UniProtKB/TrEMBL annotation:
Domain Pus10 N-terminal eukaryotes: 87-215
KW Ligase (keyword) present: no
Bias-annotated ranges (Basic and acidic residues): 200-212
Annotated keywords: Isomerase, tRNA processing
Domain named Pus10-like C-terminal: residues: 264-496
GO BP, one annotated term: tRNA pseudouridine synthesis
A GO term, aspect molecular function: tRNA pseudouridine(55) synthase activity
Enzyme Commission number, as recorded: 5.4.99.25
PANTHER family recorded: TRNA PSEUDOURIDINE SYNTHASE PUS10
Classification via InterPro entries: PsdUridine_synth_cat_dom_sf, Pus10-like, Pus10-like_C, Pus10_N_euk
Name listed for the protein in its UniProt record: tRNA pseudouridine(55) synthase
Family: Belongs to the pseudouridine synthase Pus10 family.
Species, as recorded: Clitoria ternatea (Butterfly pea)
Record region (Disordered): 200-230
Length: 503
């Protein structure tokens, strides 16, 4: 938490030739601006307890003038003393403009070793400040609506507190970071302002504003009503300001942070082990399997990007004892808050590092950086995708010649599957209809009861249960088709018919 009181430290940085030149330009802009503002309105706003920067933004002033360190009420000496108080509009956000903020942000970024060539500045402020602006704008319309300067100002519009704050911070921050700000940058710097008392008053202020709008509508019936409405409007606006002043005994506090929007890596993985799960699998504090695809791929990518964390997403999953072969399974790795911006060379190095691991458990293909549209690529057609398998099957009798023709002749076979017993503890007890598009049997030399079953199915088909029938919960099954007991010994995924992340 940082203090919002004025400090002096930034003068060290601005004491350069270019810094002094920039300061001189700001002060010159300020000198030219002051005579153009209506003095009666300025003095009145000062008497209401508005800070100088808020007065500027009410008149639609934009640009670097907000960076001036000399923006204090003494610029406009009124004929009466100005009470020391927190600004009723910005709750001190602009009033106690801290010129050390850009330097503090710069030091934080150096400490965390972020790499970036552009940045985006985000500001979060209490919502009551917007109510403050709306209330005072209505008050201005009632009091000054007939004056030329207000009519001209209506075309320009007021500057928001967020924009005024950015005007005061962005230029020195760009100088310190030696790069430009852009709303499209993946690297974000965020200032968050909060005010405990103002937060409590948000709901009350919102209700008051709604009641005022209702009264205003009912007061427009005639000329007398309009005069009463105008008088009531000014009175209620003043009451609103007094109410806000009672809440704003202290200025806003603020924190700042930085983060990078996620990077997405897309590709396909192959899994050669029958003892590797897709994601980290822990039961009763004990690891299941020797490793996981998620940790092998995501861990290497995270290390290369120097991020905080990662999320692994895949187009479906295979069981821990099932290999993933062929062109591989599509996956996405989402890296959170990376310090390092990966290049194409970085991506190539990560792919090589994974594929050269000694254990040879997992391999990656076609790894590349993708945008957030990688989600669309992976989800597109996922529900309708086809998957091919090779299953090692044992049956309780020797194969017959008719079995080959019987199995291969079945095309687009509809299968009803109740939720398998082995996953019933974690999935809803439903009955699903799936399609087996085609099948064929491949014999194994020297064996009449073992064979390889190659099949292509609709996504989501339980292959193990299709072979052995799951005590009748899957029908038909290979066992019921061949009229004997059938058991599956091993299973491999040999292809996933999806277009994304292919070479």
């Amino acid at each position: 938490m940082l203090s919002n009181q004025p400090t002096v430290g930034v003068a060290i940085r601005w004491g350069t030739v270019s810094g002094m030149a920039e300061t001189d330009l700001v002060e010159k802009d300020l000198e030219q601006l002051l005579p153009t503002l209506p003095s009666d309105a300025v003095n009145h706003f000062l008497s209401l307890g508005l800070c100088v920067r808020c007065i500027f933004r009410l008149f639609g002033v934009q640009g670097r003038v907000y960076t001036s360190p000399s923006l204090s009420p003494s610029l406009f000496p009124p004929p009466f003393p100005i009470p020391t108080q927190v600004c009723r509009l910005c709750l001190g956000i602009l009033q106690f403009h801290n010129q050390n903020v850009p330097l503090l942000i710069s030091n934080m970024l150096k400490q965390h070793a972020y790499h970036f060539d552009t940045f985006s500045l985000e500001v979060s402020i209490p919502s009551i400040i917007l109510h403050n602006d709306n209330s005072l704008r209505s008050y201005m319309k009632a009091k000054y609506g007939s004056q030329p300067w207000f009519q001209q100002n209506s075309l320009i519009g007021c500057v928001s507190t967020k924009d005024a704050l950015k005007f005061s911070i962005l230029s020195p921050l760009e100088n310190l970071l030696e790069c430009k700000s852009t709303s499209m940058s993946s690297f974000r710097i965020r200032l968050t302002y909060s005010h405990a008392e103002a937060s409590k008053g948000d709901e009350k202020t919102s209700d008051s504003a709604a009641e005022w709008r209702k009264r205003r509508k009912t007061g427009e019936s005639n000329v007398v009503g309009e005069r009463q409405s105008s008088s009531s409007l000014e009175h209620e606006s003043s009451d609103c300001c007094k109410f806000l002043l009672e809440m704003a005994n202290e200025p806003c506090d603020f924190t700042f942070s930085c983060y990078r929007t996620p990077f997405y890596f897309g590709g396909r993985y192959l899994k050669y082990s029958r003892n590797v799960s897709q994601t980290r699998w822990i039961i009763d504090d004990e690891r299941m399997g020797e490793a996981s695809v998620e940790e092998i791929i995501g861990g290497n990518i995270l290390q290369a990007c120097q991020g905080d964390s990662f999320k692994f997403h895949a187009a479906g999953r295979e069981d821990i004892d099932v290999r993933m072969l062929g062109p591989g399974r599509p996956f996405l790795v989402e890296v959170q808050n990376a310090r390092y911006v990966p290049s194409e060379l970085t991506v190539e190095d990560v792919e090589k590092r994974i594929n050269k691991l000694e254990n040879k458990l997992v391999r990656v293909k076609n790894l590349k950086l993708v945008g957030s549209d990688g989600w669309n690529l992976m989800r597109e057609g996922e529900a309708e995708k086809q998957k091919q398998y090779a299953a090692l099957v044992w049956i309780s009798r020797p194969l017959k010649d008719d079995d080959f023709q019987c199995v291969s002749s079945l095309k687009d076979l509809k299968v009803l599957q109740k939720t398998p017993i082995r996953v019933l503890h974690r999935r809803s007890p439903l009955e699903r209809e799936k399609i087996i598009h085609w099948m064929k049997i491949e014999t194994i030399a020297g064996s009449s009861q073992y064979f390889l079953l190659h099949l292509c199915t609709q996504a989501g088909t339980y292959i193990k249960e299709f072979v052995h029938g799951d005590l009748g919960r899957t029908h038909p099954s290979i066992g019921s088709i061949l009229g004997c007991r059938a058991e599956i010994l091993q299973l491999d995924v040999t292809d996933i018919k999806m277009e994304c992340f292919l070479a």
